[in-house]
């Protein structure tokens, strides 16, 4: 069954570009949009491209960012000089021309997508160039200048939303979004990520559960390096669905970083494309079940630019449109030629890694010696009681 989906897109979104040596290369988004077009995702009934994507204004950005930081970003984009107090000009966050304009456009696209969902223009809306979840109120962090995910949530709250859920499946902890709503029980943040013991940003432990008055509204599942499809899906199903069913958000916002994949060069989880695709279906189902279908989906990390990100996010957009791309499908010849032209790399041949991910539900039995089960149990014990839920059930 087709779903209504608005896709926020402007060619200017590829101008968020830290330079040719930086791992966050905008070609991954360009290749995703091209592959989705080749599969006809944007031509499906109910799928439209959002018109009028504009940069977020200073006033809008100030919902989550300090005015002096916004001015520092503008200044850095003009002078190309580093600004240490704001973490601009580091190896992670190099300055680039017109940095503010490019970053504000990404943020504006996510807010425009949020508006489409909030005002009922579409059940679902996407900004795959978004998901810059690390940016903090007063400094850049982890390849992220403005936190478009947090801004979209803050905008929804300004419109009167009383409950917004944020689920982050990026391999890195969604620290910026968590920090901005740590004391706000209107926002439930859930992040599944590689353990802070082995990966940036070094936060996201199960003990980080929310500030005074919001205990249990920050949820972190810190998974050990080497976690595969079966174990990751087990953790997801043990934590995310019961919390969303209890919370009943008015809008579900998800960050869909593809860097959990085994080929990603910056992290250590070993999911397949097929495991990621199963996650997209689960989030779609949960949006319909718990949030009245209101689903804002954003991109995020993902540094295997050719083999992983375009296929993963094409599956994501197809899922949100209500019609999946057959994983056995061959990638189109014209897209393969485009990949070779743009990157010089060999493109993937099929829309699958050839896996059929299955998992054993956590409720079927807890293994106290298993590190993934230990992570699941730590999270459930830390937050479930705050929601009136028994962590042992």
UniProtKB/TrEMBL annotation:
The keyword RNA-binding does not apply. One of its GO terms (molecular function) is histone deacetylase activity. Pathway: Ketone degradation; acetoin degradation. It holds the Pfam family Hist_deacetyl. Residues 22-318 form the Histone deacetylase domain. Keywords: Acetoin catabolism. GO terms for biological process: acetoin catabolic process; epigenetic regulation of gene expression. Residues 346-370 are annotated as: Disordered. Belongs to the histone deacetylase family. This is Acetoin utilization protein AcuC.
């Amino acid at each position: 069954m087709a779903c209504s989906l608005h896709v926020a897109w402007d060619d200017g979104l590829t101008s968020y570009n830290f330079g040719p040596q930086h791992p966050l290369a905008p070609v991954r988004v360009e290749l995703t949009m091209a592959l989705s077009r080749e599969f006809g995702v944007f031509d499906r009934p109910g799928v439209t491209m959002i018109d009028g994507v504009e940069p977020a204004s200073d006033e809008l950005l100030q919902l989550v960012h300090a005015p002096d930081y916004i001015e520092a970003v503008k200044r850095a984009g003009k002078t190309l000089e580093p600004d240490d107090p704001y973490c601009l000009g580091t190896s992670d966050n190099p300055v680039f021309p017109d940095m503010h304009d490019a970053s504000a456009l990404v943020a504006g696209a996510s807010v425009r997508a949020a508006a489409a969902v909030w005002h009922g223009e579409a059940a679902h809306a996407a900004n795959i160039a978004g998901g810059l979840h690390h940016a903090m109120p007063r400094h850049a962090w982890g390849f992220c200048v403005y936190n478009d995910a947090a801004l979209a949530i803050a905008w929804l709250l300004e419109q009167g939303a009383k409950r917004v859920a944020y689920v982050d499946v990026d391999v890195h902890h969604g620290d910026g979004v968590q920090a901005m709503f740590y004391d706000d029980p209107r926002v439930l943040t859930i992040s599944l990520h590689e353990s802070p013991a082995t990966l940036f940003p070094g936060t996201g432990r199960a003990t980080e559960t929310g500030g005074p008055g919001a205990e249990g509204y920050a949820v972190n599942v810190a998974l050990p390096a080497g976690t595969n499809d079966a174990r990751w899906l087990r953790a997801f199903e043990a934590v995310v669905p019961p919390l969303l069913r209890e919370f009943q958000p008015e809008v579900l916002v998800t960050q869909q970083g593809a860097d959990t994949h085994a080929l990603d060069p910056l992290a250590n989880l070993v999911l397949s494309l097929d495991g990621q695709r199963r996650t997209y279906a689960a989030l779609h189902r949960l949006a319909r079940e718990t949030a009245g279908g209101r689903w804002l989906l954003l991109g995020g990390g993902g540094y295997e630019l050719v083999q992983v990100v375009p296929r993963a996010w094409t599956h994501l957009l197809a899922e949100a449109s209500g019609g999946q791309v057959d994983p056995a499908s061959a990638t189109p010849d014209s897209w393969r030629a485009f990949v070779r032209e743009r990157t010089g790399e060999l493109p993937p041949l099929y829309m699958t890694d050839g896996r059929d991910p299955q998992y054993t539900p956590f409720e079927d039995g807890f293994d106290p010696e298993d590190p993934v089960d230990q992570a699941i149990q730590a999270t459930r014990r830390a937050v479930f009681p705050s929601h009136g839920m028994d962590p042992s059930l």
